[in-house]
Every structure is written in C-alpha cells, then in structure tokens.
Amino acid sequence: MELWQALLLGIVEGLTEYLPVSSTGHLLVTQRILGIPESDASNAYAIAIQAGAIVAVLALYRKRVGQMALGAIGRDPIGAKLAMCVIVAFLPAAIVGFALDDLIESVLFGPWPIVVAWVVGGVVILWFARTKRSQEGRSLEELGWRAALAIGAVQCIAMWPGVSRSLATILGGVAVGLSLSAAVEFSFLLGLVTLGAATAYKSLQHGATMLEAYGPLPVAIGFVAAWIAAVVSVRFMVGWLNERGLGIFAWWRFGAAAIVVAMIAAGML
C-alpha cells in the first residue's frame, strides 16, 4: 500500500464513519478502485483505522463519556444508567458479529451487496424524512434498557456493508421514541463501544497479517487521517441534522450506488 493510498483511505473512513452512508461500504469500494484486492489484510485495515474515528468522538464527547465513567463507579446515577444502556445496546452486535463474522465477509463484502444496501438505505431515509418527526421525542436521559436493546438489535443490520451503523442506530433511536438529536448522540456513544470492539477483534485476529502486508506507517497514517476527518465530519453532521435532517444523505447513497454500478458495467470493479 502506498502512503497516499493510506492517507486517502483514512480520510474516507473518518468522513463517512459517523455519517449515515456506510464507511465500510465506501472503504471497500475505494480499496477496489485503488487496486487493493480483497484479503484478510485489507479487510482488517478497513476496520483498524476506525480507531482514529473513535478517538475523535472520545474527544468531542468527553464530558458525556466522563459522566458515564463516573456512573460506572457509582458517582453519577444518570451516567450509570446511560452506561448500562450503551452496554445493553452493544450486546446484540457482539453476539451476532462473533457468530457470523466469517459468513458476512464471504457473502456481503462485495460491490453488489453494497449497492443494494445503499439504495435501500436511501429509500428508508426518504421515507423517514416524510414522517417529519425529527425534533420530537425523549431526551437521552429518558432512555431505558429495553429501548437500548431494541436499538442494539437494529444495529446488527449494519453488519451488511452499505447499510451504515449510524443510520441504523439513529433511526432505531427515533423509532423507540428518542428525539433526533438524542438518537444521534446515542449512536455516537454506542459507536465508541461497537467500533472499539470490532477494531480490537480484527487487530487481534488479522493484525499481524495486516502489518506484514502493509507495514506500520500506512496504518498510522490511516489512523491520523481518520481522526482528523472524523472531527470535521461529526461537527458537520450534528449541525446539519439539527437544521436540515437526513434527506441529503439519501441522495449521497443513490449517487454512490450509481457510480459503483457504472464502474461495474465498465469493468472497473
């Protein structure tokens, strides 16, 4: 892997990780465009550089994370409740991901499954935008463990590349009664645990293979690029959603799907 490729992949990861457009789908397609073949090393790289995006959200939401940490040691009841909800929401993905990881990679890590997921997700976004429920709902402090578990179950759908973990958890949050802003924040917090676990799992499973194939410098460049790009992306997304909603991301998904279909037709993928 060339260093400029690592930089580009890091930027793509950071910009798309928390947007409802699927970072995994964008990364897999970008890797194929760059001529990086599918392998354990390339799949592990796509997951490992998520650590940069995790650090970005840790910094941006440090007060909320600190509240949850205090709750874990019994010093903040609201933080304790939120930490419990995050853990409960993480459990379905942990179980399903561990059981079906190899099957998912062998069947769904390809251009056509990603295109299908992009299109279906775009249709869902447009349907959601028509409901006009974006600012109504409960605050994050009112979230209970049953609703958190439901959000976690919906998150499992995002193991299909192209679906988007952010989209699934945001819409899942709204579906259980959270306001859009509360659903977005919970999606980010849940992402810390989910992405952190996925990064650790892939690094332990295929980290040595990844480092042997690419070396440590491309991994470091991808991490830093993802970190910086994620800071920009998260700040943009929060402001955009509060003002204009999810609609634009449906057209982003349709456009990405159309480009990939054209490239497949032209023999480029």
List the defining traits of the structure above.
269 residues, mainly alpha, cell wall biogenesis/degradation, globular, hydrolase, single chain, 80% helix
Overall spatial form: globular
Report the strand count.
0
Helix content: over 70%
What low-confidence regions span 5 or more consecutive residues with pLDDT below 50? none
Number of helices: 12
Distance between the termini: 18 Å
Class inferred from helices and paired strands = mainly alpha
Explain this structure to me?
The protein is an all-alpha fold. The protein has one domain. It has helices at residues 3-16, 23-33, 40-48, 50-60, 62-72, 77-108, 111-131, 145-155, 165-175, 180-214, 216-244, 247-265. Helix 7 (111-131) runs antiparallel to helix 12 (247-265). The two termini are 18 Å apart. 47% of the residues are buried.
Quick recap of the structure?
By secondary structure, the protein is mostly helical. The chain has helices spanning 3-16, 23-33, 40-48, 50-60, 62-72, 77-108, 111-131, 145-155, 165-175, 180-214, 216-244, 247-265.
Secondary-structure blueprint of this entry?
Layout: H1 3-16, H2 23-33, H3 40-48, H4 50-60, H5 62-72, H6 77-108, H7 111-131, H8 145-155, H9 165-175, H10 180-214, H11 216-244, H12 247-265
